[in-house]
Amino acid sequence: MKISWPHMGSLEVILSGVFEELGVDYILAPPNTERTLELGARFGPEFACFPLKTTLGNFIEAIEAGADTLIMVAGRGPCRFGYYAETQRRILADAGYEFEMIPLTFHLGKLPLLIKQLQRLKQGASWTSLARAVKFALAKAYLIDRLEQEALHQRYLDRDKGATTAAMKGCYKKVLEAGGYDRLRLVEQEGFELLRSVPKTERQPIKIGVIGEFYLVLEPFFNLQVEEQLGYLGAYVERNIYLTDWIRPSGNNPVAGHHDSESEEAARPYLTHAVGGEGLHSVGNTVLFHRHGFDGVVHLMPFTCMPETIAKSILPLVSQDLGIPVLSLVIDEMTGKAGVATRLEAFADLAHFRRRARGEDIPLSLQPAF
Amino acid sequence: MLYFRYGRLWNSFLNALGAEVVESGETTRSILTSGVSKAENESCLPVKVFYGHVLALQDKVDALFVPRLVSVKKNTHTCPKMLGLPDMAKSAVGNKVGIIAPTIDFHFGLWTNYRAVYSTGRRFTHNPMKIISAGIEAWKEHKSYLEKLTMGMDRKRALEGESDQRLCEGRELRVGVIGHHYNVYDTFTTMSLLERLGSMGVDVMTADMVPETLRELELAKLPQEIYWSYEQEIAGAILACARYKLVDGIIFMISFPCGPDSIIRVLCEQEIRFMDTVPMMTLVMDEHTGEGGFLTRIEAFIDMLRRKKDRAEEARRAVMAI
Predict the structure, then answer these.
(1) Phi and psi of B173, rounded to 5°?
(2) Rounded Cα–Cα distance for residues B43 and A309 (Å)
(3) ipTM of the assembly?
């Protein structure tokens, strides 16, 4: 049994860590490329949302690489995400691939099913070792999230373009290889040291928040490296969501530094009810970003995403009320890189002008976003 | 968006409370155009139509009644667009017009909504008995309206009252037109599909007319349950129609880009292929759909069904002759 799963940001750190610890055979889906997208768009339903197509592409490439067991999360909620596993299973079976899909069902009423599915996945390893492996893998992912946040905050200070990204890659590798909590603590120090040691220049930053649908925000290949591009345009970037924050069931977001209820509260004047996915938080976080003195918000949404469409139709009102510019980028398989880059440039320029017009200086010292 | 299902309920409730109800009426070209220009590009067609209706009403009324339906059945949700409907209406009209948006959630049963109903009624009257009786009366009306739809009465006639005319009259060909209520009953966006089919001499079967027990039976067979209330109805109806050959062909009406339907479509098309009983055609509508292309496809589909049926008839006769 060779297990595989679709890419989503640093998800591979968690899952590969867990399976390695348990001694279960796994195979990483080939990295996201144009081909992934092409495959996904060819087999996927015409106006299904973008992540469904990309993860479908991941699955196909993984099966081609030799995987025979696919993991996907299933659930229940107004968003389509809960039904991905079933739909993709049908599409792949139709296309003639041989595999087994294990939809991990995280739903209180379906706990017995989840236990059964995990039993299959862990292949004889004990429950305690599974719990230990998951805990350690989450610690790793948490570290990566914090390092990534640091990189987002300091990228605009790069003297040599791309230095932070390169340093981040080094950190990533180190964390991936770390075994044991002692080693992880060491890597933590080294990682932050490495990021700090990147040569810097003096530069007036603008503060830009990135919000939107979590898959698109977390997966740099498909959001066309929006965060990196913003960094090069001189922006101190903060995201509304990190992987470990998203996984955390309590609604507490230690990396982003606020609780879900805060953003729900902030969204209340505009959107009063959860609409599934990140819709409510997209609106709420825009308000929060405004409160923390951000110059603009970039809203990422996959084409036809239902919750984000609602957020998008409400964001202009928020933007008008609070005077914070919002750039909505709708991304699908047709989106061109140059078009997005141009829009981001124009947006960053506007934010620079606005900041200069207001005549405020932010102290150059790095400060937490929230 | 949900008027075709709950219009009777709302009207009766609000009228009983002494409110003056102004309806935006049927969708027209100008309503659609204004909705399209106001709504997000990515919204689905019914949401755009909804925006149009909101804009058409905003100068005529003091408050808009846009309920928020969270769930209409246990363990299900409605689509996110319906959850955000009142807020979208608010962003469309601003603060000019008030919005009455009771949150209806049937997740824990009928009576948990008492509060939402009561708070809505409270705006019009202070007499709690009046609110309760209006609510019960409206619910009864709603039930009878749904029953009429189940009996196969056309929506407009069901709204008006009794009528003998049915969509299904036992003509030679019967086609299932299945989809969301707003995709099937809205005469403008569907280009009066139901009437046209009627004038072609074809019986129409809507999702309402498929017996609920059959729908539930089909849904129970699925490996993963569908968690959207209305999609359950649609998928159940399509699968039941195909399995028990209730119809000769199915037309699945989808509006572009409906989220849940795109998922259900994959499921239904595959299941129908496995069953191999009746053909299904999927029609995707949006605001650019041309009448000509739409009609041609329907006519071709009907012709194909006719020919198929004739051929089957001939084959049967041949067998009997032998």
Answers:
(1) -115, 135
(2) 6
(3) 0.83
